[in-house]
Specification:
188 residues; single chain; alpha+beta; elongated; 4 helices
Amino acid sequence: MPVIAAVFASFSAFAQQVPATIRLLPEDAQRAFNGHQHNFYFLPPGQTGENYQNAGFFGQKLRPYLAGNPEALSRLDDYRRQKTFFLIDRLVAVGSMGVFAGYVFEKTKFPQYTSTPQLVAAGFFGFSVLSTLFINRNTNSHFQSAVAAYNAGKAQGATPRRLRPADFGLGLNAGPGGGPTLALGLRW
């Protein structure tokens, strides 16, 4: 009987050693495509409660926790790239509006709205507005997938990986008695 108790105790100890995962603020975990572009908040691995940390504009405060997971770091780099595009897009929009307004408020008798530099600035602004749609489309999903990749890597490390065959084949041959024989082959 003591052996059975020891086995159950080891199983319960293994069950309590659940790997520490990163949790996002519930509102941040539910952000969808084209969602808000403000910073994410997360709970570091092994922490509980409501003490969520700000991940920073580029997710730089999350990077030390993802250090051992190349897939998660790659996704976080994609998030940083999207946020850089977001900043460049904002600079183009503000700059083009400044150029346009500079010609409108120029010290002339009548304000101008259709000079060549204004039309170019309006074109840049239109391009910026259109590109904002594409930039913001997947930005949030890159951050969420970085956290998901980290958590999946931790979950894989906790349990043994399932063996999967690398290749399989199915064949139909003539059997020793002349009848058909079905054969299944697996390669690991």
